[in-house]
Design brief:
With 191 residues, the protein is α+β, with helices and mostly antiparallel strands. Helices cover 36% and strands 29% of the residues. A hairpin with a 3-residue loop joins strand 3 and strand 4.
C-alpha cells in the first residue's frame, strides 16, 4: 500500500504489459473510501481540539494526531493500490487482482466460459470461498463469472485455496471485460 501511495503521489502509474487491457474495479468502493477519508480528515483537528482542552498530557495529543494521519494515509494508500492494480486481460490470460493482496492469473486454456452477472454477497470480505466458487469482491459485489474447465487451486494471501471451479470478480465495466475475454475463447464457450 505504501508503494502504491508513493506511485500515486509521484504520478508513476503501473503500465500494463504490451497488448494487455486494464479493467478497473474501484468504482463501487470509491465513494465509501472517499467518505471515510473525508471524515477522518475532519476528525483529526476536532479530536486534537478536544484532547487539548481535556487531557493534560501533550504526548496523548501527539499520539492521537500521529494515528489519525497514519490512518488517512493508509486509506489513501489502499485506494491507490486498488486503482493502480486493475484486472488485466491479454493474450496469455486473465489476471484478476485486488490491490496488492490478490493477484491470480488464469491462462485461457483453464477458462471454460465467461459471463456478466451482478451478485451481492452478505459479507464484506474481499475474498470469500463458498462450495467450489471463489468470490473476489469489491463492495460486497461481483459482476463477472469465470467458469473453469477443471478445478484449480488459487494462490491467495492466506495460502492456496481449496480447488475451485468458478471465480467471480467485480469489474466496473463487466460487459467490456466479458466481450474482450470472449475473443480469446472458442464461440461455443459463450455464456
Amino acid at each position: 500500500m505504501w508503494r502504491s501511495l508513493a506511485r500515486l503521489v509521484l504520478r508513476r502509474p503501473v503500465a500494463p504489459p504490451p497488448g494487455a487491457e486494464a479493467f478497473s474495479y474501484v468504482g463501487v468502493v470509491s465513494p465509501i473510501l472517499g467518505v471515510f477519508i473525508g471524515l477522518s480528515v475532519i476528525e483529526i483537528p476536532i479530536l486534537d481540539l478536544i484532547l487539548r482542552h481535556t487531557v493534560p498530557w501533550t504526548w496523548v495529543r501527539y499520539a492521537a494526531l500521529a494515528l489519525g494521519v497514519w490512518g488517512v494515509l493508509w486509506m489513501i494508500g489502499l485506494f491507490a493500490s486498488l486503482r493502480l492494480h486493475p484486472h488485466l486481460l491479454g493474450a496469455d490470460g486473465l489476471r484478476i487482482r485486488n490491490g496488492t493482496s490478490v493477484d491470480v492469473t488464469l491462462p485461457w486454456s483453464a477458462v471454460a466460459t465467461v459471463g456478466a452477472r451482478y451478485r451481492s454477497l452478505p459479507s464484506s470480505r474481499t475474498i470469500q470461498v463458498e462450495d467450489d466458487v471463489l468470490h473476489i469482491c469489491a463492495g460486497s459485489q461481483t459482476s463477472v463469472d469465470v467458469v473453469l474447465g477443471a478445478p484449480i487451486q488459487v494462490p491467495l494471501p492466506a495460502g492456496p485455496s481449496r480447488p475451485v471451479r468458478e471465480i467471480r470478480l467485480y469489474a466496473d465495466d463487466p460487459a467490456a471485460l466479458v466481450a474482450r475475454a470472449r475473443r480469446h475463447l472458442p464461440a461455443r464457450q459463450y455464456r
